[in-house]
Specification:
Blueprint (H helix, E strand, L loop, with lengths): L6 E6 L8 H4 L10 H13 L4 E4 L26 H8 L7 E7 L5 H15 L4 E5 L4 H7 L15 H26 L6 E4 L4 E3 L9 E2 L4 E2 L14 E5 L3 H10 L2 E4 L4 H18 L7 E10 L3 H15 L8 E5 L1 H12 L5 E6 L4 H16 L12 H5 L15
Parallel strand pairs: 1-2, 1-13, 2-3, 3-4, 4-9, 9-10, 10-11, 11-12, 11-13
Antiparallel strand pairs: 5-6, 7-8
Helix pairs in contact: 4-6, 6-7, 7-8, 10-11
């Protein structure tokens, strides 16, 4: 029987997800470069008992053109590194999950594993990671270690494009597998701290992962003891069949972008079918729908805000996620309807910060609680506990001599 309550996440980026957010936000345009900004947003989200927050990748110069800077000067550009922001937030929060986005195309999995494991230790078991596949040539030029051809979004069925995307996602799959093995390379009881014998660790409980693949050859073990969650949560943003299959193989949570309730039901069915095809082992994916939200006290005021933002953006402001413009009560109606399709919850993208975040936390959350769709507080435990995910057994523990 599906859970009657929804899981609720918020995606934080700059001064908001609308390209003109900085023009209407009451915050100073430089606020997104200050630790106080991120600490205040995280505190607001945690006061409403949201399950988790995500932080966007700092690799591309947003939004940019496909092959490099687009020369625009009317949009907020530049970000702080999401992993370092999460590390700054961690000691200032107690319950909310923290999921930074870290690219896999240009980042060594050993470094990702140690960084996210460290975040899990620092946060007391509230860390996650959103692996991101990079397809832009502009991003490859930032790093300078590889190159990619220009990929035309209108020709994704082109055989050469299919091959390139397949290779990128296969590489990402290997990266996630290396990271997961490294998280297990220390057993939970590897640190024995036996003062009498002078042994801090039991070497039999540290393991070489000996991973050799097309893109990586990593021996291990990690330099960081096993994270408190055993395996921090892996979350994937997916829009189509290839990333759905990637999520089914490698993730715990998947963020999807349905257009309406019928589309949400179709996506849920496709993901469940992908889990069967790849032979998924363990709990089914937690599927959360992404929505870009712009909220106000009345529908008319919300539409006026949206029109004002669009007029200032000098772009069409299109998003990969469905944009909702209306009141918190109307959004609660939509969430209730879409939740029946099999979605576990929603990841909301505030159009303007902090305004749309506070509308979520102070108006939407109470509306959902009135409908018994969202819990009243935190039950305690790790992020995996919050999401209803069991703590995985260590894959190497059975190899240790009794």
């Amino acid at each position: 029987m599906p859970d009657p309550t929804v899981q609720l996440a918020v995606a934080l980026d700059g001064l908001g997800w609308h390209p003109a957010a900085w023009r209407l936000s009451p915050a100073d345009p430089t606020a997104a470069l200050s630790p106080q900004w991120w600490a205040a947003l995280a505190a607001e989200a945690e006061r409403a008992a949201l399950d988790l927050l995500t932080l966007e990748d700092g690799s591309p110069l947003p939004p940019g053109a496909a092959d490099g800077p687009d020369g625009r000067t009317d949009q907020l550009r530049g970000r702080l590194d999401p992993l370092l922001v999460a590390a700054r937030i961690a000691p200032l929060t107690q319950h909310i999950g923290l999921i930074p986005t870290i690219g896999v195309t240009h980042t060594e999995p050993f470094h990702v594993s140690t960084s996210v494991a460290t975040l899990d230790h620092v946060s007391g078991g509230r860390a996650g990671w959103r692996p991101r596949v990079s397809v832009r040539r502009s991003e490859t030029r930032h790093v300078g270690r590889r190159d990619l051809p220009d990929l035309d979004p209108a020709q994704l069925d082109d055989p050469a494009t299919v091959r390139i995307l397949g290779d990128l996602f296969a590489e990402a799959g290997d990266a996630v597998e290396v990271v997961r093995r490294l998280w297990d390379s220390w057993q939970d009881d590897a640190e024995i701290r036996d003062v009498a014998s002078g042994r801090f660790v039991d070497r039999d409980r540290l393991h070489y992962i000996d991973f050799t693949g097309r893109w990586f050859s990593v021996k291990g073990p990690s330099i960081v003891p096993r994270p408190p969650q055993g395996q921090p949560v892996v979350a994937v943003l997916a829009h189509s069949s290839l990333p759905y299959a990637f999520a089914a193989r490698h993730a715990d949570v998947v963020f999807v972008t349905p257009a309406d309730a019928a589309h949400a039901a179709a996506i849920v069915a496709e993901i469940r079918a992908a889990e069967e095809i790849v032979g998924r082992v363990g709990p089914p994916l937690r599927i959360l729908a992404d929505l870009l939200v712009l909220l106000d006290q009345t529908p008319a005021l919300a539409r006026q805000r949206r029109a004002r933002l669009d007029s200032l953006a000098t772009t069409d402001g299109r998003s990969d996620a469905t944009a909702f413009t209306g009141t918190p009560g109307q959004l609660a109606d939509l969430i209730e309807q879409w939740h029946r399709t099999g979605l576990a919850g929603f990841r909301l993208r505030p159009a303007v910060l902090p305004d749309d975040l506070t509308a979520i936390t102070r108006a939407l959350v109470p509306a959902l609680r009135e409908r018994n769709l969202f819990r009243a507080g935190y039950p305690g435990g790790t992020l995996r506990d919050l999401l209803g995910l069991p703590r995985p057994a260590n894959r190497y523990a059975a190899e240790t001599p009794a």
